[in-house]
Design brief:
The protein is an alpha+beta fold and 211 residues long. It has seven helices and twelve strands. A hairpin with a 2-residue loop joins β10 and β11 (148-155).
Length: 211
């Protein structure tokens, strides 16, 4: 869904065509949209933005605002600036833009209920990532090398070698233990479907059995 420009309301000054919140530094974003302005445009309902005013032919009062981007996050366009919906919900709820990044606790990128959002550092966000699409073992940080299973973990940009193991279960258990030691979120390494359904990852299941 494409949302057209809002005339005379919302942003203090329109941004250049096709700009985005990622291409504008935070201080400029804060100048473009304040909490009061956001609250005049939207209300938050069950983790969704609802239009309070007419912002275009496809953005009428009472309609949900925002559309999914290729990365799975919802965005809402206001005067040619695309804001991530979860950041706008944070702004409306707390009256200020979040420090750092916003992490979706359950990892579901379009679940923008305020209780599912937490402000984190870049490192904190990296410690609650989905399982990589190219993973072949079913356990994050575990791969088969020759006849042994190898476990690794990346912490603050540094890759740590956890050892070689006879079974995938042992390697997955070592990886999960390292995640716990270094403060990774329990959801780290779970797939989209596991996060949405509330199930544990294959690696977590096997780690529990081998503990």
């Amino acid at each position: 869904m494409t949302e057209s420009k809002l005339s005379g309301k919302g942003l203090i000054s329109p941004a250049p065509q096709n700009s985005s919140c990622e291409s504008v530094v935070r201080k400029d974003i804060e100048q473009l949209l304040t909490a009061d302005q956001a609250r005049a445009l939207f209300k938050v309902q069950d983790g969704k933005l609802v239009n309070l005013v007419r912002r275009g032919s496809r953005a009428m009062p009472g309609m949900f605002a925002g559309s999914p981007n290729s990365d799975g996050y919802l965005r809402v366009k206001i005067n040619n600036v695309a804001f991530r919906v979860h950041r706008v919900i944070w702004l409306i709820t707390y009256g200020e833009w979040p420090e750092g990044q916003i992490d979706h606790v359950n990892g579901v990128r379009d679940d923008n209920r305020i209780e599912n959002l937490r402000a984190v550092s870049v490192v904190g966000n990296q410690q609650n990532q989905h399982m990589r699409v190219d993973n072949t073992s079913g356990a994050t940080g575990v791969c088969l090398q020759g006849s042994a299973w190898t476990a690794k973990i990346r912490v603050r940009g540094k890759r740590l070698y956890l050892g070689r193991f006879k079974s995938m279960e042992e390697a997955a258990a070592a990886r999960k233990a390292a995640e716990l030691l270094h403060g990774f979120h329990p959801n780290h390494g779970r797939t989209d479907s596991e996060r949405r359904n509330g199930t544990k990852s294959l690696g977590a299941h096997r780690s529990m059995r081998s503990a």
